[in-house]
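Predict structure. Chain length: 188.
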Amino acid sequence: MDGMLIRSVDQDLQLSGDGRTVKGILAPYNEIAEVNDGFGPYLEMYKPGCFERCIRGNAQYLRVQLEHDGHWVGRGDVWRDGPAGLAADLRLDDTEAGREAAYKIRDKQTPGLSLMFQPSHTHSKEERVQGKTVMVRHRVKALRHVAICQEPCYAGAQIEVVRSQLSLPTGPPPRLAYWQEWTERVKR
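Prediction complete.
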């Protein structure tokens, strides 16, 4: 994975506007979470401002995926590095994959946001926080992508709003509806 790490945040994601804008927190600040990058579990925490350099410039072009290994369904749009954490407005594509992602959010199948990032090893260090040894991230080198996911590791990384209109189609997108119907037929 080229030194990239994945972190997820659980939240109640919703759509806003035309049903293709997802708002949420990607990385909550000062929240301790147990993570595991394949070498055993440890505690981790982001400090305020650690993503400041990453969101300058072309962050709006950062891709959004449905799960980390899934479809590319959109891009980052507006980034905010506030006191609660790194937040973003993510824009879902007007494609079948984008509509599928919007459906999964509305249906509460994917309540969390996840971030793939490259840590700065010179600005990450173990510190004692609340009597525990915690890897504290003071700066992050780079962001790779954002994923809309099922199981986030940070409780604060959640979708807050997905803008929607009354005229949006109801029910699952055609591809998902087909697989749901097929699964039901096979079960019989």
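Summary: The chain has two helices and 13 strands.
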